[in-house]
Amino acid sequence: MFKEWNIELNQFIILIIIGAVGGWSLGYPGIGVALVSVPYCLWMLFRTRDLARWLAGGDKSDPPESTGLWGQIFDNLYQQNKSYKGQISNLQNIIIRAQQSTNAIRDAVIVVDVHGNLEWWNDAGTRLLGFQLKTDRGQNLTNLLRDPRFIRYFDAGNYQRPLEIPSSHQSGVVLQFQVTVFGEGERLIVARDVTRVHNLEQMRQDFVANVSHELRTPLTVIKGYLETFMDNLQQDHPQLSRGLSRMNEQALRMEALVNDLLLLSRLETEQNERVLKPVGMARLLRQIHTDALAMNDSKQHNIQLEISSDLDINGDEEELRSAFSNLVINAIKYTPPHSNITLRWYDDDNGLCMEVEDDGQGIDPQHLPRLTERFYRADQSRHSKTGGTGLGLAIVKHVLIHHNAKLDVYSELGEGSIFTCRFPRKCVVKDTQKSVA
Ligand code: ADP
Q: 116 CA to middle of ligand 1, Å?
C-alpha cells in the first residue's frame, strides 16, 4: 500500500515539475503548475466519488475499476469486505447449528436475564412449559411458572439440588428444574420430564412403606406369643427357652427394621410439606444424653455432654431426636467398653454444629463415601453383634436434608470417629420466633 502511495507521490511531484518547467519556459511557472494540478485534483475527486458511491451501494456490486493507489485501496476494501462476509456467514451458521442442536434436546432449555425475565428458550420450552414467542418473551419467569415451590426455589438462589414438581402445563407430568447461574447473573434453566423415574421411585417408596406396614401386625402377634411362651417355659424346658429367646431377639430386630423403614419412607415422602418450629437444642441434647447414659450399663462408656452455644434452630424436634440418637447409639454400639463419647453443640463462622465424637475402632476411609447408603456397613463382621438395621445413617442423612444441613464424617481406623451435623446460619431461631414458640 505504501509502495503505491510513494509511486503516486512521485508521479505528482514529476507532474508539478513538468508543469513548473513548461510554465517557466513560457514565462508563467505558476500557471504551468496550476494547469497540471487542477486536472490531478479533479481526477482525485472523481476517484473519491467512485469510492463513496461504492460504499453507499453496500456490498452488492464489485468495486470500481482503477489503477495505482486507488486500485490498491479498492482491492483492499473489497478483500476485507469479503473476509467480513465470510466471518458473518460462519457466525450465522454457528448460531443456526446451536439453535438446531438445542431444539433437538428433549429437555427445555431457558435463558433468563439478571431480572429473571425470559430471553430465549428452545422448542421443548414451548412443548413442556407452554411458552409462546409472541406473548412470553421478556416476561418474568415467575409470572409464567407460578407454582409457589418453584418461586421459592428460583428466588432463594440455592441451586445445588434440582427441584421436582408437577407440571402446571401438562397434567400427570413431573418436571425437574435445574438452574445454573452464568455471565453477570443471568440464569440457564433446564427443565426435564422425569415422570417415568418419578413414578418408579413413587412405586418403590409405596412398596417399601406398604410391606413395612403390613409386616407390623404379624410381627406384633409373633412377639406376643413368644413372650407368653417364654414366661411359661422358662424353668421346665431350658433348651426350648433358649431358642425362644433367640427368636424374640430376631423379632425385636425385625421390628426395629420395620420401624426404621417406615420412618425413612415418611422422611422421603414428606420432603416439602413440613412446618419447622423452634427446637430447644440444649434441652433436646440433655434428654438424649440422659437416654444414652441409661443405655450405657453394659459397656460403661464415659459419655459427656458439652453445650457451648445457646442458639436454637428451627426444625422438626422428633426427626432431630431420631437423627442425633442414631449417632449416639452408633457411638455406643461401635466402641469397646470404657470408651469416651462426647456430644457437642456449638456454633462457629460456618453455622451450628451437633457433633458426636468417640475414640472407638474408627472406620476405614474407603467406606466413608458410602456410609449413609441404606444397609451399607463398614464392617460386616461387627453388625451381627451390634444388631443394627443398617438404616441409621440413611435416616440421619434424610433428616439433615430436611433441615438444609449436612453430615460430615471424620474417622481414622483405631483412633475413633467424629460425626458432625452442620446446620446453616439461616436455621437459627430469631428472638421474635422464640417468643411466639
Ligand atoms: P447400623 O444399623 O449398622 O448401625 P448405620 O447406618 O447406623 O447402620 O451405620 C452404618 C455403618 O457405619 C455401621 O454398620 C458401622 O459399620 C459404621 N459406623 C457408624 N457409626 C460408627 C462409629 N461411631 N464407629 C465406627 N463405625 C461406625
A: 45
